[in-house]
Write a structure and sequence with these properties.
The structure holds two protein chains of two kinds. Chain A is built from eleven helices and no strands. By secondary structure, chain A is an all-alpha fold. At the A-B interface, helix 7 and helix 11 of A face helix 1 and helix 4 of B.
Chain lengths: ~300, ~220
């Protein structure tokens, strides 16, 4: 019973913090540009506003347009139920491991790509084609990064991976960790449609990937898409922060450890969001044909990290 | 913990050496070199903290001044003054050269298992890392056509040699170190002048055109 409660608590924290992280990164970018930026509650307000609006569907839209937003949202939340943040007891942790989490996230990508093509607009198809290209190229390096940690901890169960990383630390394998960190950074930026690969802020037709697919969405559907993209970003940042900054993950399940764990977790999230904002500030978006080269770099780094662990 | 940081920043230098292979602009390459020198100085600083040697602190500082500020400044000036074409040109494409770089790194780690280093070593992995940086610098010199990219490959190699030297020897004598820095700086200066000469003679810094016949 206690484990179920802990699972619900962790899922609730993830769901509650996700819009904040997105606004925080945006705010940080605005501050670095010398702008004032939105208040930190902006994403919550946006979601509230969008949920209250009605959905407008194209007359050519099939049933896919109706179910895709829910499928995307449900698959992202489903993946979030696998992810421990302060304690290894998660809601669905017993049903699958970290590999299941990666592919459940990929299910969301599949439905969002279908959604982009469904309404028959030119932009949607373009966005879907690009998104699937990027997703196919990132998948291999993401899995290799995960396998590096699975080998280090002799487990693919995500809770056990985190627990053992927090127990032994990364000091035993610093070289492997450095390469895995950079590879995971490249993968996360590509998967979450952040700047060198895609621009989350524009609606300029030639540059968008993720935005192009959800261009037709409105109201409730748009809110679901936005919420799942916030959640996906938070999932990646949580994964990175728990793997590479091993503090604040406790076996103990008393209230005190929970409070410390949650506070440390928030600090880690903020710490790991800063590089994302700095990269977005200091780089321009790549040409699309340059993207495979950078993703190859990510793949190579993850492969090196796996090899070095063995040497 | 300090050993962890030595290896971590050494690994980041190797990552930067690989990233050098994936850059497609001359300016970006120079910036990447700058970042590599920065990580190298941090790594040497931590080696210095481990051994607590004054020479290593000094060499970390000189490394920072010369390789992170002076040489990149000089190279940026060269690019700016000669209005070079910023695109790089390569013999082997970026994706393929990245794939070959995996083999190079496996090789350097494989070789260094066999080498038995006697004496006190600051961190076990730092030697294969610096070997990897040296070989990737060499590879950069081979695959890039433009003279400036080749200079950057040479400087990357030199960074690798420097990392290996500092980690294996507890810091070289100060006079040797200052001599090396002077050599590198003058080398970069002369190479820049060379680039200028190549540019004025054949109107391009593409070294593959050097063998073309001219009247």
């Amino acid at each position: 019973m206690k484990e179920v409660l802990i699972g619900f608590l962790q899922l609730f924290i993830l769901l509650a913090i996700a819009p904040f992280i997105k606004t925080f990164i945006h705010k940080l970018k605005c501050l670095m540009r010398g702008q004032k930026g939105p208040p930190l509650t902006q994403a919550y307000k946006d979601l509230y506003r969008l949920f209250n609006k009605e959905v407008v569907l194209s007359k050519d839209a099939s049933f896919i347009s109706r179910i895709a937003p829910y499928m995307v949202f449900v698959s992202t939340v489903w993946a979030a139920t696998f992810l421990p943040i302060i304690n290894k007891h998660t809601l669905l942790g017993f049903t699958g491991d970290i590999i299941a989490m990666v592919y459940i996230l990929a299910l969301g990508v599949f439905f969002i790509a279908l959604y982009g093509m469904d309404s028959g607009s030119a932009f949607g198809g373009l966005g879907s084609s690009r998104e699937v290209t990027i997703a196919a190229l990132t998948e291999a390096s993401f899995m290799l990064v995960i396998f590096t940690f699975a080998l280090q901890t002799n487990s693919t169960n995500i809770g056990e991976i985190f627990e053992k990383v927090h127990e032994f630390g990364l000091t035993a394998v610093p070289v492997s960790a450095a390469f895995a960190l950079i590879a995971l950074l490249i993968v996360s930026l590509a998967e979450n449609a952040r700047i060198p690969f895609d621009n989350p802020e524009t609606h300029l037709e030639l540059t968008m990937v993720h935005e192009a697919m959800i261009l037709e969405a409105s109201g409730r559907h748009l809110a679901l898409f936005e919420y799942s993209s916030y959640l996906k970003l938070t999932i990646f940042i949580t994964l990175a922060s728990n793997l590479f900054f091993p503090i604040g993950f406790y076996k103990d399940t008393s209230i005190l450890f929970f409070i410390i764990g949650i506070l440390v977790y928030l600090l880690k999230l903020i710490l790991f969001s800063i590089p994302v904002a700095i990269i977005e500030m200091s780089m321009a978006k790549f040409r699309f044909f340059r993207v495979p080269e950078i993703l190859t770099l990510g793949f190579i780094l993850s492969l090196i990290s796996l090899i070095i662990y063995h040497v | 913990m300090v050993k962890f940081l030595v290896e971590f920043f050494g690994a980041l230098s190797l990552f930067i050496a690989i990233a050098q292979l994936s850059s497609n602009r001359l300016n970006l390459s120079i910036k990447i070199y700058q970042l590599q020198s920065l990580f190298l100085s941090i790594s040497i600083l931590f080696i210095g903290i481990t051994f607590n040697e004054f020479e290593l602190y000094l060499s970390a500082f000189l490394n920072f001044i010369i390789k992170t500020i002076l040489i990149p400044y000089l190279l940026f000036k060269v690019v700016e003054k000669m209005r070079l074409d910023r695109e790089i040109s390569v013999y082997i494409g970026i994706t393929n050269s990245l794939l070959i770089s995996i083999l190079i790194i496996i090789l350097s780690f494989y070789i260094s298992i066999k080498i038995d280093i006697s004496g006190e070593v600051v961190a076990k992995q730092i030697f294969p890392l610096s070997l990897g940086i040296i070989l990737i610098g060499l590879f950069t010199m081979i695959v890039r056509k433009k003279a400036l990219s080749q200079i950057l490959g040479f400087l990357t190699m030199e960074n690798g040699i420097f990392l290996a030297g500092s980690s294996l020897t507890k810091g070289m004598p100060m006079i040797v170190e200052i001599g090396i820095f002077f050599d590198v700086f003058v080398g970069a200066l002369m190479a820049a002048i060379f680039v200028f000469q190549i540019k004025t003679t054949i109107d391009s810094i593409d070294t593959s055109k050097l063998s073309n016949l001219r009247e």
